[in-house]
């Protein structure tokens, strides 16, 4: 059953596409490598040109080296030339909660735009959809880096030409 408390949801994803995306995230979860937490997560991203990429969490004995499912899926997409996304679905085994991305993953998502959709799901396929920007308000983004560069350039040109 669909949760209707959608926040800042972007238009345009047909129900069947949402379903396909969620199913892919659930399948990806089956590959989770999580011997330490035993907490399986899967993710699937949809690019603007209609390609899907999936990921699962991959843990490590050196625990800080583990990586979340969302980052695996996004990195797979980016490493194959895709940087523009419509949506990501996240799946876990939590029956009573919509799985929500960790803070680091929120930052990873907003790197590629603030206005695309994140489907937080339950194993029964029900979901809650939120825009990336709703998950990370007052974010530090690539635009902020650009601002900094522009300030430097301005200062530089004053130095050079008075
Ligand atoms: N995990 C994810 O893969 N995505 C999330 O959004 C939340 C947490 C993983 C990291 C770790 O392998 C396990 O879940 C428990 O934290």
From TrEMBL:
<feature type="binding site">
    <location>
        <position position="105"/>
    </location>
    <ligand>
        <name>Zn(2+)</name>
    </ligand>
</feature>
<dbReference type="GO" id="GO:0005829">
    <property type="term" value="C:cytosol"/>
</dbReference>
<feature type="active site" description="Proton donor">
    <location>
        <position position="70"/>
    </location>
</feature>
<comment type="similarity">
    <text>Belongs to the cytidine and deoxycytidylate deaminase family.</text>
</comment>
<dbReference type="InterPro" id="IPR006262">
    <property type="entry name" value="Cyt_deam_tetra"/>
</dbReference>
<feature type="compositionally biased region" description="Basic and acidic residues">
    <location>
        <begin position="144"/>
        <end position="156"/>
    </location>
</feature>
<comment type="function">
    <text>This enzyme scavenges exogenous and endogenous cytidine and 2'-deoxycytidine for UMP synthesis.</text>
</comment>
<feature type="binding site">
    <location>
        <position position="68"/>
    </location>
    <ligand>
        <name>Zn(2+)</name>
    </ligand>
</feature>
<protein>
    <recommendedName>
        <fullName>Cytidine deaminase</fullName>
        <ecNumber>3.5.4.5</ecNumber>
    </recommendedName>
</protein>
<dbReference type="InterPro" id="IPR050202">
    <property type="entry name" value="Cyt/Deoxycyt_deaminase"/>
</dbReference>
<dbReference type="InterPro" id="IPR016192">
    <property type="entry name" value="APOBEC/CMP_deaminase_Zn-bd"/>
</dbReference>
<dbReference type="InterPro" id="IPR016193">
    <property type="entry name" value="Cytidine_deaminase-like"/>
</dbReference>
<dbReference type="GO" id="GO:0055086">
    <property type="term" value="P:nucleobase-containing small molecule metabolic process"/>
</dbReference>
<dbReference type="InterPro" id="IPR002125">
    <property type="entry name" value="CMP_dCMP_dom"/>
</dbReference>
<feature type="region of interest" description="Disordered">
    <location>
        <begin position="143"/>
        <end position="162"/>
    </location>
</feature>
<dbReference type="GO" id="GO:0072527">
    <property type="term" value="P:pyrimidine-containing compound metabolic process"/>
</dbReference>
<dbReference type="GO" id="GO:0008270">
    <property type="term" value="F:zinc ion binding"/>
</dbReference>
<feature type="binding site">
    <location>
        <position position="102"/>
    </location>
    <ligand>
        <name>Zn(2+)</name>
    </ligand>
</feature>
<feature type="domain" description="CMP/dCMP-type deaminase">
    <location>
        <begin position="16"/>
        <end position="143"/>
    </location>
</feature>
<keyword id="KW-0378">Hydrolase</keyword>
<keyword id="KW-0862">Zinc</keyword>
<dbReference type="GO" id="GO:0004126">
    <property type="term" value="F:cytidine deaminase activity"/>
</dbReference>
<dbReference type="GO" id="GO:0042802">
    <property type="term" value="F:identical protein binding"/>
</dbReference>
<dbReference type="Pfam" id="PF00383">
    <property type="entry name" value="dCMP_cyt_deam_1"/>
</dbReference>
<keyword id="KW-0479">Metal-binding</keyword>
């Amino acid at each position: 059953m669909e949760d209707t408390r959608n926040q800042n949801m972007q238009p345009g994803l047909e129900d069947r596409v949402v379903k396909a995306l969620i199913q892919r995230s659930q399948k990806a979860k089956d590959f989770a490598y999580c011997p330490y937490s035993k907490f399986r997560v899967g993710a699937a991203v949809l690019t603007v040109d209609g390609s899907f990429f999936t990921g699962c969490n991959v843990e490590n004995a050196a625990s800080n080296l583990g990586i979340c499912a969302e980052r695996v899926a996004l990195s797979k997409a980016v490493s194959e030339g895709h940087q523009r996304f419509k949506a990501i679905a996240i799946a876990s085994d939590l029956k009573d909660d919509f799985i929500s991305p960790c803070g680091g993953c929120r930052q990873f998502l907003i790197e590629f735009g603030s206005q695309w959709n994140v489907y937080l799901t339950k194993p029964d396929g029900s979901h809650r959809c939120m825009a990336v920007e709703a998950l990370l308000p007052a974010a530090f983004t690539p635009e902020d880096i650009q601002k900094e560069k522009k300030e430097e350039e301005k200062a530089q040109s004053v130095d050079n030409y008075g």
